[in-house]
Design a protein that fits this description.
eight-stranded antiparallel beta sheet, lyase, globular, single chain, 17 strands, 299 residues, Polysaccharide lyase family 14 protein
């Protein structure tokens, strides 16, 4: 009988080693860490916003996947003031930084071909979705070119990839991707149901409507990304997004790198309302919480 997954945070049966800030994940392959910048290799922080460590409010209900994971007792708080959009706007909101994990993990990423990286999140009660916004994900590429892959960048696009969640009106969820602009990648992304489309900033909205984020309002929801790099010269990379332990988007036959220098670098831990225009702005002061940051090397 196949071994069941350890947790919605690690929704696969087998992996080599990893880390987590979830104290209820007991496995000899996993190092349990505290939720702080130094332990998790946080860097390139947007200093116009904060990601304070706090005791989150108690959830209003439990998600079906949380039966074996109690609510976290510490979390990073994202604050989205009324009128805020992205962290660099006149009224900044959310937060933005990169996360490589503890030293043993970031060193293992140098040779890793497949990883799972995950977290849990909770949105405040009476959340207003407005037009949409971004949530944390995974990034990679070649050295410094891996950073800043988003937001309409045209240069060195074959040397980076970035995968984040996005919400749309009425809690509709999607995967917002920046991948090397190859014909095969465009084809594979565009065919993911129920709706996928290229955006004006060179990113792709993938699988819009394949999940909803209202399940995170007032309760903890698990988000996990499985990323498998392609062999150089081949189009055999893979991405799977899991929500509360269930796969909701799966994409194969991708090219995430064009040379052996292309690596999985860690997490792009970013969240904000937007878009870049004012009509995306938060309609009121709002908060969200992020916890149980986890990463494992699969291969």
């Amino acid at each position: 009988m196949p071994q069941p997954p350890l947790s919605p945070l690690i929704p696969i049966p087998n992996f080599l080693t990893g880390f987590t800030t979830c104290t209820s994940l007991n496995d000899k392959r996993i190092q349990i860490l505290t939720l702080d910048d130094q332990s998790l290799g946080v860097h390139r922080i947007s200093h116009s916003t904060t990601h304070n460590t706090t005791i989150p409010p108690p959830p209003q209900s439990l998600s079906p996947s949380s039966s074996n994971i109690p609510p976290p007792n510490v979390a990073w708080e994202a604050y989205y003031p009324k009128g805020s959009i992205n962290p660099t706007a006149p009224i900044p909101g959310g937060f933005s930084f990169y996360l490589s994990g503890p030293p043993f993990f970031s060193e293992a990423l140098e040779g890793a071909k497949e990883v799972v990286m995950s977290y849990r999140m909770m949105l405040a009660e009476e959340w207003d979705w407005v037009k949409g916004g971004k949530l944390p994900g995974v990034f990679g590429g070649v050295g410094g070119s891996a950073y800043g892959c988003t937001g309409g960048r045209k240069e060195q696009r074959c040397q980076c990839f970035d995968l984040r969640l996005m919400w749309r009106p009425k809690s509709v969820g999607e995967l917002y991707t920046y991948l090397p602009p190859t014909p095969r990648n465009a084809h594979q992304l565009s065919r993911v149901p129920p709706l996928s489309k290229e955006n004006s900033d060179y990113g792709y909205s993938v699988g819009r409507g394949s999940f909803h984020l209202d399940r995170a309002v007032g309760r903890w929801m698990s988000v996990a990304f499985r990323v498998k790099l392609n062999d150089v010269g081949e189009e055999n990379g893979e991405i799977t997004l899991y929500i509360d332990g269930s796969p909701v988007i799966s994409i194969d036959r991708l090219s995430l790198r064009t040379s052996d220098e292309g690596k999985i670098m860690g997490m792009h831990f970013q969240t904000f309302f937007g878009g870049h225009a004012g009509d995306w702005a938060s309609s009121k002061d709002q908060r969200a919480w992020f916890a149980d940051v986890t990463g494992v090397i699969v291969e």
